[in-house]
Each structure stands twice: as C-alpha cells, then as structure tokens.
Design goal:
Helices cover 47% and strands 12% of the residues. The protein is of the alpha/beta class. The protein has 2 domains: 134 residues, DNAb Helicase, Chain A (Orthogonal Bundle), CATH 1.10.860.10; 257 residues, 3-Layer(aba) Sandwich (Rossmann fold), CATH 3.40.50.300. The strands form 2 sheets. Strands 5-4-6-7-3-8-9-10-11 form a 9-stranded mixed sheet, sandwiched between helices. A two-stranded antiparallel sheet has the order 1-2. The radius of gyration is 27 Å and the shape is elongated.
C-alpha cells in the first residue's frame, strides 16, 4: 500500500473558495496559513496568489486571483479558468471556513511532525548523540503546535457568564483562610515569586507546595538547579513534611512515610544536559500527561535561551511567552522564582532593604506585563529596628499584582512566623 501523508483536500478547497468570496475569510486564512501548508499543488499555487494580493491590501476575489495567475502563467496549472471558478464556488459560511482553516493547519503540522520523526530516525541510526537528538526532536515537534487564532465566541460567552456568577478559577489553596483570601496558585496561569537572597523564597515555596499537596492534590515538577540534586532537595522536603531534620533522625518510620509521600507525587527535571526553555517545558509536558499539575522553575536564570540573544529583555520576553503558552495548553500552575537586582535600603536604616518589586528583576517590565500574579517573600534579615520592621523570624508575603482580582487573589500582605527547626510557616495567630 502506498503511503499517503495526512491531508484534507476538501478543507483546502473550502479555504480557497472562501478567500475568493469574502474579504473577511481571506483575512482569516492569510493570518493563519502559508502556501506551503497546502497539500494539493494547485491549491498551493492559488493560495500563493491570494496571499500575494492580501499582502498588498488588494481584493482577493476570483477576478483578481485569475489576473495574478495569468500574469504568472500558472492558470493552466490550476485547471484553467473553469478550475478556478469551481474552487471559488466552494465557499461556505464563515464558521465552516474557520474550521477548514484549522484543518489545513492541523494537517500541515502533522506532515511536518512526520518529517521531523523521519529525520530523528535517521539520526538514531547513525552516530549522533542520542540524548541531543531526543531534545532536538521534541523541540521541533513542539514548534509544530498550532499558534493563536481568533477566540471561539462560544467559549468567550461561557467564560463571561462564569465571571458574572463569580465562578472561581481552578486554583491551589492551602486551607489557611488569611492566606487563601489574598493568594492562590491558579492552574493555567503564571506566578512570579521574588525576594532578596536569603529571604527564604525556596523554603517558603516548599512549605506552600506541601500545603497544596495536602489540601488540593498538587503534583509538582521541579526544575530547581539551585536546590542541588533531587536527593538533596528531597531531604529538605521531608524536613518540611515531618517538621524535623531527617539527617541523623532516628524516627525512620516517619522519614520513610514522608519520603514515599513526596516521591508518589513529585518529579524533578535534571539540568545536566539541555536546560533551554524548550527542553525543560518539553519534559514538563510529558509529566503533565502523567498527572503533574504544577511546575516550579527555581530560578529562571538557570535556564538558557533557545537561541542566541544579545538583549536580556528579549530573552525574558521569549521565555515568558513560552511559559505562559505552556501553562494554558497543559492547565498546569507555573511558578517562576526570579531574583531581584540590587535593592536600596529603607531610608533611615543601616541594613533593612525595602520589599523588592517586579521592577527590580532584570527586564522588570516584561515580568510585570506577562505574569498573572507577582508576590514577594520578605523579612527583616538584619533584625534592625524589629519593633518597626519585625524580627528575622517574621516573614511577609507581599502580593503585588493579581491579574484576575477576586477570582485568584488580591493585592495585600500576609505575615507569618518561620520556625527554622521545623522548616514551617504559620500565621501570627495560628500554630505552626
């Protein structure tokens, strides 16, 4: 049997007919498709003429397309004037046309994916590094995923009524009312956590995720090179779970229970090969398919750009766009830990630094623009003027930005005590 690549010539004909019938259909198609995405050779030729006219803001009707093909001496290649007329007669409603555009794009993506897999098969048979070939192939396959399009009006209306009725976004919550009223971890969204070095960002995040796992079945994936190898991070997580340092601890049953509890729901992405954004997100996507619902990148600057970029703001913009798209497509909650640059002292103090903001992170405007939530972990690390700024054991979570106020949180501050021995946090009026 002769192999037939995936295609849908009927959808291609509907797309072309619509392009030659209505300007709105032509605009929709040319924003999404390219000529090389059509499988039929004649269809590629006609769409190339349509795209040429659209790029010059000219009509793409039957007469105009016929003129272009005559000038290019390609009219006979598409079946002549009769063949072109038959294509134009295939126009349907805009709804059918939009569906056909999606179908053509999907078939093109599938063919491209097959080509990439064939290249990988050749590489696997040769002397190429196996791991590098896997990474390149996964990255190439991800790039075949369809891009943005006009929002589905039905989905827009449904979400509109959900908002009117106050339906909450699916978010992780700790069960601590004072915290959950201000800050949740919404699935499908991007949260940025910042703070001064030594403020306890990662420790706080470990405790927070433990609470989410206990109360809402969070299943995290960590890309946390600064935490060291997964085994070392697991020691810290077990410490948080049992409220005691497991190193040298004789309560082996409690330690083993905590270890098994974390291992059942947690995974780590290694950083010993490829730590580009595409590689990390590709691995996280495989974990999402197996039930993971929360990705932690701690910190972002341990990831490298997919491509050489001379400007850091462009790298951050590219990274955040990839991460936000990943969050939407997988419905995972994503947390990125981002260290601030130098932060000034509070006026009138010798060693108390002000609360860092998104603007203190390199490329600050990009963080502010792309993040759905931004929060800072802050404490008076020096202990100076404790009556005003708190002692080092008092920790504040400062919520700076909430894109969907009321549904996932709101701006404000919530204060905790930190018990270093237990590696746990508690509200001022609650037990650790």
């Amino acid at each position: 049997m002769t192999y037939q690549p995936p295609s849908d010539l009927e959808s291609e004909a509907i797309v072309l007919g619509g392009c030659m019938d209505q300007a709105s259909m032509s605009a929709n198609a040319t924003q999404t498709l390219r000529a090389d995405m059509f499988y039929g050779e004649a269809n590629r030729t006609v769409f190339d003429a349509v795209a040429h006219l659209a790029s010059q803001d000219k009509p793409t009707d039957l007469t105009a397309v016929t003129a272009v093909l005559l000038h290019r001496k390609q009219l006979d290649d598409v079946g002549g004037a009769v063949g072109l007329y038959d294509m134009a007669a295939r126009s349907l409603t805009f709804l059918y046309h939009r569906t056909a555009v999606r179908k053509v794009a999907d078939m093109a993506a599938r063919r491209h994916s097959i080509d990439e897999m064939r290249k990988a098969a050749v590489a696997f048979s040769g002397d190429d590094d196996y791991a590098s070939t896997v990474d390149r192939t996964v990255d190439a396959l991800i790039r075949t995923l369809p891009g943005g399009e006009v929002a589905d009006p039905t989905e827009v209306s449904l979400e509109f009524y959900e908002r009117l009725e106050g339906v909450k976004v699916q978010s992780f919550r700790t069960g601590i009312r004072q915290l959950d009223d201000l800050f949740t971890l919404p699935q499908g969204m991007l949260t940025i956590l910042t703070g001064l070095p030594g403020s306890g960002k990662s420790t706080f995040l470990d405790w927070l995720i433990m609470r989410y796992a206990e109360k809402a079945d969070a299943r995290p994936v960590f890309f946390s090179p600064e935490q060291g190898p997964p085994s070392r991070h697991l020691v810290s997580l077990v410490h948080t779970k049992i409220g005691a340092d497991p190193v040298g601890n004789r309560d082996r049953d409690a330690i083993e229970d905590a270890r098994a509890w974390w291992m059942e729901r947690t995974s780590w992405i290694q950083d010993d090969r490829d730590n580009t954004a595409s590689a990390v997100l590709a691995i996280a996507r495989t974990r999402a398919a197996k039930g993971a619902n929360l990705l932690v990148i701690d910190p972002y600057n341990n990831m490298t750009p997919d491509h050489r970029m001379d400007r850091q703001d462009l790298y951050i913009q590219d990274l955040l766009r990839k991460v936000k798209r990943f969050a939407r497509e997988t419905d995972m909650a994503v947390v990125i830990v981002a260290h601030p640059r130098s932060v000034p002292l509070i006026h009138g103090t010798d060693s108390v630094y002000r609360v860092p903001t998104a603007g203190d992170i390199s490329g600050g405007q990009e963080w502010w623009n792309h993040a759905d939530l931004i929060a800072t972990v802050w404490r008076n690390q020096s202990g100076e003027q404790p009556e005003t700024y708190g002692d080092p054991a008092q920790v504040e979570l400062v919520i700076q930005k909430v894109r969907d106020v009321g549904r996932v949180g709101r701006q404000g501050r919530v204060r905790f005590f930190f018990d270093e021995t237990k590696r746990r946090y508690g509200m001022m009026d609650r037990n650790l």
